[in-house]
# Entry
Amino acid sequence: MMREYVHQEIESKWQKVWDEQKLYQTDQDPKKPKYYALEQFPYPSGDGLHMGHVRVYSIGDVVARFRRMNGYRVLHPMGADAFGLPAENAAIQRGVNPREWTVNNMKKIRKEQALLGTSYDWDRYVGSCLPDYYQMNQWLFLLFYERGLAYRKKASVNWCPSCATVLANEQVEDGKCWRCDSEVTKKELEQWFLRITDYAERLLTGLDELPGWPDRVRAMQRNWIGKSVGAHVTFTLPEHEEKITVFTTRPDTLYGVSYMVVAPEHPLVPQLIQGYENQHDIEQFIEEMRKQTEIERTATDVEKVGYFTGSYAVHPLTGEQVPIWVANYVLMDYGTGAVMGVPAHDERDFEFAKKYDLPIRVVIQPAAGEELALPLTAAYTEDGRIVNSGKYDGMPNRQVLQQIAEDLAKEGYGGATVNYRLRDWLISRQRYWGTPIPMIYCDHCGTVPVPKEQLPVVLPEDVVFDGKRNPLTTSESFVHTDCPSCGRTARRETDTMDTFVDSSWYYLRFTDAHNSEIPFTPEKANDWMQVDEYIGGIEHAVLHLLYSRFFTKVLYDAGMVNVEEPFASLLTQGMVLKDGSKMSKSKGNVVSPLEIIDRYGADTARLFILFAAPPERDLDWSDSGVEGSYRFLNRVWRLVMQHQELFGKKLTPGELNSESKELRRLLHHTIQKVTYEIGERNHFNTAVSSIMELVNGINQMGEQADPAIVQEALESLVILLAPFVPHVTEELWHEMGKDGSIHLVRWPEYDASALVLDEVEIVVQVNGKVREKLMISTSADRKAIEEQALSNSKVQAQLEGKTVRKVIVVPNKLVNIVAN
Ligand code: ANZ
Ligand code: ZN
# Structure
């Protein structure tokens, strides 16, 4: 009786064995090339794994296993991104300790990851909420501080009233909190920032050195950094000492300026409106604007609103006085917070000028065709010929763009400049469950960093979670401390760090996970970096990936790592859908990974997920697809088991019959294809489908083929499947009488000579129509192929009464005979 495929027994058995043998401990053999495969570490939410997780881990595991079998020493670690709001919310709602809650969830998700049969080196496990990890966040914060890259300033910040916390710009989506969807408002607070803007240009140019990243992600980052090349133009104020500088991308339109606009928050506004009849109205307007978010103010469907301030500015080139307005559509934190209004050539300015009846001056005319008809019905934003602009008249505007910037610089009125949309990274959170920012405030010494040897600043236990304030402020033992500098009583910073800090460098920590002195030793990081394949969701295209790149560049500058970019290649996996929409609790369309694993096994779940779609595409969950994968594994099982007579035998092939040759050809073609599809293209689905064809081939030809060839095919089949379905292949491997784990076996190499066929099918066409198919020796030359085609009786019948004009031969493919 043949043994059945019982996944429950096989999977738990091998997981235990691998664990005991520490099979996936990182190989340190320096003679092997290194490979670093990394999947984004999960947030331990308490819900355990969802199918999205299963997908990322299945992909990462194939990559890691494939490289290991190909002779690399592979670093394939896992951890938990364990700080963050839900733990604190659970503390408020259920009265549970955030630490306990999180640590339990970490255990749960880790257990579920293991159930998938993933090949992680658990010895390098990293949990970001554990003091040995967040101590290093603090260490790095101090490094940033020493390098002038961490600073505190009062800032108008995005405030989520429901989460009672500050949000980074990136965490505001359409004016709403990224977590709870509440309307975000503005609030002024002292906040800690990381100076990512210092790295804007390098973060931008670095993108060109990442060919292994999807273009889409690079474009999103480019867009987020938002480089604008333009000029500063300085306007003097006849009635004030101060000057106003604007940022413009279009200095060529300078003669078209008919007014200026400053942002409501511009520091000069109080002076500008002082004593003006509308002062009170304007003050009220400014108050209103302060409460609104950037999005609310600048959405295209929002009406532009402004007030004349009563003050004027002097045009730097004409000396003319233009009115200064204050309006909602100018933002304080972009450029200089002030713009020059050029209604003839800017759409926003046009709309504003029309509404408030401000003059509109054309300074660019189309280079060809009709002149602009006055009055304008819309702004002319195209290129053209400069007019009404003094000495610049007649020049192409693109040329004037440069020229005016240079002239302004000479006159001391500004000059060429570059502006970025990227803002410094606000990392302060008024929350408990994060890394305490290691700073102390002393009435005598000011802001004093916690000395490195006093780290970690540990999260206290005596805190109140009432949802109304930062719990850290309720801990007397935490807040009151001694000044490290003068010893007097001082106060600790109670803000914690944005959890994106934790994930900005965890991939470096994995290279030296237990270092208790420093975040990681440079030698170890340099040994493993870069991450060769980084796998995760597109939702991290901007935030996490930009911050990680920033951290790596800072650490590169600090001499701690010798690469400037952390992730050589990035694979952003698609979503798992059910009936066309993303699996989610609220839609009630969630398929539980644990139920699938229980019913069909982890191998089936992995195989289905890898086979159903290319990794970047969305994948539609299909019960029949899962059934199909399960049936396939059963077929493989039976196919191998049917050949028990071959197990453990040492066989040598005799003279090969045509089935043996064809099976051998199919096998080596499959090896070649699977190796290429996994190793070069990450096309796991096509790799699986060619393995399926091999199974069909063995089924069809196994009876007639030489036993030695069948044995070779079966062994290779199991090896090729091993990265996808690690348990069933390990079991079959041992059934075949092999010693040692299949996962340490060397990946097969294809034999090029097996791919060469003795004969190939050649299509013969007469005047473009297929008339015959011939088997012709692959060693035949053009002349011989032509002769065989012409002498074929069916072909001759077609040629009767005609004269052959031309014969085209494409070796191994076709012969086309032109005759009339
Ligand atoms: C005059 C002008 C004339 C402009 C023209 C455009 C076209 P990007 O490309 O996004 O960088 N601007 C500058 N600072 C601003 C702020 N704080 N709030 C709102 N708008 C601001 O856009 C740069 C252009 O946006 C600048 O060039 C300025 O308008 C406006 F025919 O200056 B321009
Ligand atoms: Zn002091």
